[in-house]
Amino acid sequence: MSQQGSAGNVIAAIASFFIAGLGQLVQGRIFSALIFCIVIYTGYFFWVLIIPPIIGFIVHVWCVIDAAKFKAN
Question: The pTM is what?
Fold first, then answer.
């Protein structure tokens, strides 16, 4: 995953779309994957309370964008 827009980043973004944090895990960013997964699934778990799922959705979109725009050093 050498550069932004590479095939690896596209695959990571698609993986993050279906399973939150999986794209970051594919890229080797374990801490980011764990944080995204916890925040998103906690937000989705409290779907009855209105605000947490909205926050979960926003963070999920951020997760996908983060996986797509990742640039390795």
Answer: 0.81
Residue 62 lies in a domain: yes
Instruction: Please state, in angstroms and as integers, the Cα–Cα distance from residue 27 to each residue in 5, 47, 49, 54, 60, following that order.
Output: 13, 29, 33, 26, 17
Q: What is the per-residue pLDDT across 45-70, written as a single tens digit (0 to 9) for each?
A: 988 888 888 999 999 999 999 988 88
Q: Give the domain extent around 61.
A: 7-68
- Whether 33 is in a domain gets the answer yes
Q: Return the structure tokens found at 34.
A: 């764990």
- Is residue 37 a contact partner of residue 45, using CB atoms and an 8 Å limit? no
